[in-house]
Amino acid sequence: MGTLVVGAECYDLVATVGKGTFGEVAQGRRRSTGEVVAIKILKKKRYHGRVVKKELKLLQALRGVDTEESHIVRFLESFADGACTYLVFELLEQNLRDFQKKNNFLPLPVRHIRTITPENIMLVDHARYPFHVKLVDFGSACILTEVRHVKQPYIQTRFYRAPEILLGLPFCEKVDVWSLGCVMAELHLGWPLYPGINEYDQVRYICSTLGLPRGELLCPVERRRYVFSSLDQLAAVHIHLASDSGQEALAEHCDLRGMVALLKTMLTWDSQERITPSAALEHPFISLQQVKSSFEAEFGTAGTRGSPVARCPVPTGSRRGSPTAHSNPAQKPPAAAPGWCRPQGRWRCRHCWGSASGSPPAPIPPSV
Predict the structure, then answer these.
(1) What domains are there in the chain, each with its CATH number?
(2) Is 134 annotated as contributing to ligand binding?
(3) Is there a contact between 366 and 192 (Cβ–Cβ < 8 Å)?
């Protein structure tokens, strides 16, 4: 593809790995070290300048953050020439949207949904660290905690767009809580929760589960594919698991109840009533408290009937999505290792490994 020269450093461009509204992302190799990186190439257009400056400002502010602990892509450097601005990042494996495509949009078991659209959530290395993710693309991010007016014509991908953005209301960081709730529901279902074809249709879909916003009437339309009358109906969507034993099914049911409870606090019309990011991190579904209490209570009864349960103890305070919470399925632990379980004669941790089967409908691709 070419070579980028930055002072004494050279980057060889290998292939284009993605394209977006403001540019493209290429895989590159740093000649001095041989390191493979991702290079975001942003064309210098009049209306792009503000977006590029804002993203650079945010990336510089995030440089003091532990990117592994915070699940944020590691930013390496930036440079520019007369035509483009280049942002260099660590290379990650694939985004959630590509992962869904490779798996024919099969629904994920709830235990994997602890991870602001699927395109901006990257899997670091799925073979070594299943479902360990990092966030990328901060071009539309805001540093302010409260924004009074929507200045940009386009904020958030429509399927994941918060009600306050759709209705032109003041918004804050809770718009990302809404988006994450939509992503969680989509990963469980295998199709978008609110697949509106335009903003009016998007509001109609949201009304179908949350009711009317502040008494405003929205006329019904004919297209009602994949519409739920309440978020509680998510729990009625049954996901068939490979080797779905009674214990696994019950554990999945416990997880599902916790996920639906969390989604109901994330998906609210009024952002003031929506759960905060910090409170969401402490929710039993994320902290695993619900899994530990419900699963142990229900399985304790099963165990007394001669059905011993081998399950992985979860360290206090651990959350799904961290490298320590995911084990390499190819690694065989010692026979006496207490942190491993062995259902169906093969090593697998109930909390971090599994597969889904079935034939859900293919989702509608998101668009502006």
Answers:
(1) 2-90 (3.30.200.20), 289-345 (no CATH)
(2) no
(3) yes
